[in-house]
Amino acid sequence: MEALRAKKGFICDMDGVIYKGNQLLPGVKEFVEWLYRENKKFLFLTNSSAKSPKELREKLGRMGLDMNESHFYTSALATARFLSRQHPGCSAYVIGDPGLYTALKEAGISINNTDPDYVVVGETSNYNYETITQAMRHVLNGAKLIGTNTDLTGPGETGILPACRALVMPIEAMTGKQAYYVGKPNPLMMRTGLQILGVHSEETAIIGDRMDTDILAGIESGLDTILVLSGVTSLKSMEQYPYRPRLVLSGVGEIPTL
Predict the structure, then answer these.
(1) Which residue among 15, 97, 151, 214 is the active-site one?
(2) Is pLDDT of 232 > 70?
(3) For residue range 86-133, what is the model confidence (pLDDT) as tens digits?
(4) What is the pLDDT of residue 116?
(5) How confident is the model at residue 22 (pLDDT cuts 50, 70, 90)?
(6) Is 46 in contact with 74 (CB distance < 8 Å)?
(7) CATH class for the region spanning 88-181
(8) Residue 10 DSSP SS3
(9) Which residues are within 8 A (CB) of 107 and not within 5 positions of it... i.e. 6 or more apart?
(10) How far apart, in whole angstroms, are the C-alpha atoms of residue 135 and residue 180?
């Protein structure tokens, strides 16, 4: 724990670590206060592409946490950054929520439903026969397939919901083309997070509730890995993976010192 507390940077997942649904998890306020008090550099990094940093800041504000938008980084922003560097001025057919559209447009990527360079898929409930047919045809016509993240499922107010990879898989199956996924555990997103914080991987810890994204991302990027049991992973389900986090905590409330 002392090695964790000595880290200069902290990259934290959000759902299952900071909140569940619209409820702040126990100990989170104390953890955030500790981050500020100890002058830590921190980033809330989420694989969800649905909301913009402004919307995430407003959501946490309603829960009693007030912080700057600069503390948030999403897979939508990572995807927009990736595409703008790979193909400046490109266009995309998009299946996703407003957070993804906003990130792409702000990166100079135009929305194109006719002959796009890319098909970009993120989380959304606006997914139907027409959108999947359009996506399939664009990919068959040469558009490159991009997924914002590899999450198969995600938490919802009424239980588990299909996430990005579940929406991409039918397009992959119909076209025979494999998507490139930008979000965790892709080290690309982690390196950008470290650049934003201005810290080295050896000086940074990643705190998450998922073994297949958060912990794997930390291992592959050289970060200190901290699993919290406040989200989707239990001690029993952790055993199915061939890798381990360095520390397992009940929640982030265990980290602060008085």
Answers:
(1) 15
(2) yes
(3) 999 999 999 999 999 999 999 999 999 999 999 999 999 889 999 999
(4) 98
(5) confident
(6) yes
(7) alpha beta
(8) strand
(9) 80, 81, 83, 84
(10) 15
Task: Classify 179 as helix, strand or coil.
Answer: coil
Question: Is the pLDDT higher at 11 or at 21?
Answer: 11
pTM of the predicted model, to two decimals? 0.92
The superfamily CATH assigns to domain 2-47+184-254 is HAD superfamily/HAD-like (3.40.50.1000)
Tokens 């002959």 -> residue? 115
Residue 8 has pLDDT above 80, yes or no: yes
Amino acid at 79: T
The domain limits of the chain are 2-47+184-254, 88-181
Q: Is 15 a catalytic residue?
A: yes
Query: Strands, DSSP E only, in the chain?
Result: 9-12, 19-20, 23-24, 41-46, 72-74, 91-95, 110-111, 118-121, 144-147, 153-156, 159-162, 180-181, 204-208, 224-228, 247-249
> Among 122, 124, 162, 126, which Cα is nearest to 146's?
122
Cα–Cα distance measured from residue 163 to residue 257, given in angstroms and rounded to the nearest whole number = 36
Q: Which of 172, 175, 113 is nearest to 147 (CA)?
A: 172
Q: Does the pLDDT of residue 153 top 90, yes or no?
A: no
pLDDT recorded at residue 159: 73
Residues 6 or more apart whose CB falls under 8 angstroms from that of 194 comprise 9, 11, 200, 201, 204, 221
Paired tokens of 47: 């694989």
- Residue pair 116/92 in contact by the 8 Å Cβ criterion: yes
